[in-house]
Amino acid sequence: MRPLAFETNASYIGRLAGAHHLTMRELLSSLRIYRPKIYPREDRHGPHSPTELYLNAAARERISQYTGIPGEQLARALPCWKDHEGGCGRRTTAGAHPGGALRPSNLPAVIGCPHCTIARTGQDQPVWRYLPHHRLVCARHQTWALGPHTLHGASVPHTHVLLHRAPEIVHACYAHHRLVRRWGPDADDAIAQAARITEHWRRHAPPAEHVWHERAERLAPHGTHDAPLWAVLAREAITYPETIALARLFEHRPAARYLRTHPGQRHPLQTAIAQVLDRDWLEGPQHYPDDLSHFIGTAPRDHNSQTAYRHHSERVSLHPCTIELTALGYQPPPQIRRSASAGKGTARLVRWKR
């Protein structure tokens, strides 16, 4: 069984075990790999962050021999395949025994497109993947992969949003691919900065802004009538066309990204941004931070391909993998708030199967 591109180690080993009607523990035990050491969650990890399995070199070699896939091919498909830290195996005079560690992932992971998963694996089992930002959109099946979210501590079941009624998001994805092919890592950094700026504008948009609100209504599933929830859940998708348009402007005028302005002073890109994004209210200097370079943050990259992972409104290294919706300003209706609070105690962390 071959892994999917950008798949997590835990997802791949779990699918490999399931294909042989085994649990992950039984598979590792049959390969004489010591039971992984379990690390507790830290404050920076959300309660529902995906758990990653990190294997030492000896354990990775046994997995490679078992599957018949060379280790270098596994490393190209699995971004965290070689991200092993010390203390994962029992050490003897001959070296460390095959072992590993289970700990919450430090990289933002999402569940891949379910239609693509079924087509490539023949199963409907969700596959966690470290998808780069330009791979969050599945243009073939018109879906956007959402990250894990919580509402008052309870996991939100929505993992994808359908884009059938928002074709402009798919068109922006094609433009995103062209940017990455042309500019490489520079495009990733420009998009990371643009994503943070558009998220800032989305949160502080004046009443005159109606495009994002209308787009949120189109992304909400039929019959839900809960546009405020999807405005927060799909916030990256809602501002995605504007994010890509802004990044293209940054790439053509990179020096203007680092200019400092005084409060109330017009930014050199102010008029150009308002024209490119077709937003008259962006002509006002009050919508621009004093220092655009404050929004510049290097996106974390896959060391195998140097592609950027998913961007957030904050720096990813300081942002939990699981995002609480109330921290983003969402206030659920009273009945949803009561049900979420009631289900908070039933939420379970991802645990090692015994």
Can you characterise this structure?
Helices cover 37% and strands 10% of the residues. It has a three-stranded mixed sheet. A three-stranded antiparallel sheet has the order 8-9-12, covered by helices on one side. Strands 11-10-13 form a three-stranded mixed sheet. The chain has 13 helices and 13 strands. The two termini are 24 Å apart. With 354 residues, the protein is an alpha+beta fold.
Distance between the termini: 24 Å
Mean pLDDT across residues:
80
Q: Please report which band the strand proportion falls in: under 5%, 5-15%, 15-25%, 25-35%, 35-45% or over 45%.
A: 5-15%
Q: Point out poorly predicted stretches.
A: 43-47, 89-94, 311-319, 343-354
Structure described in brief:
The protein is α+β, with helices and mostly antiparallel strands.
